[in-house]
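Cross-check.
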Amino acid sequence: MSNLNLPVFELHPGIILKGQLSMAKDIVLTGKFEGDLQTLGCLTVASGGVVTGSIEAGALVLEPGNQVEARIKVGAQPRAKIFEEVKKATGGMWPSTFQKLKELALGRR
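Predicted model, tokenized:
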């Protein structure tokens, strides 16, 4: 789990999600995701999880028994991309919560 102390987003078995998903929190996937997945946190593809598309994550854990067919980027890149989207959505102003997330993600406290 990342240091953001946010709840984990879980995609359970039997659930299929298609599209684009961008989050700041950790993700545990035991269901199926098709599309573009971005997270500042850690993406865990657990047993039974299926990902098709692209993944950008702060960290990635692939447990035995999963299926991943994706273009993968792990590291600082997703942070910059997600923060730019948040910045655009807020008109360039960083609400205090997002400012704290930015500082935590960039290692500044």
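The chain has a mean pLDDT of 80. The CA atoms of residues 12 and 51 lie 13 Å apart. Passed to J.P. for a second look.
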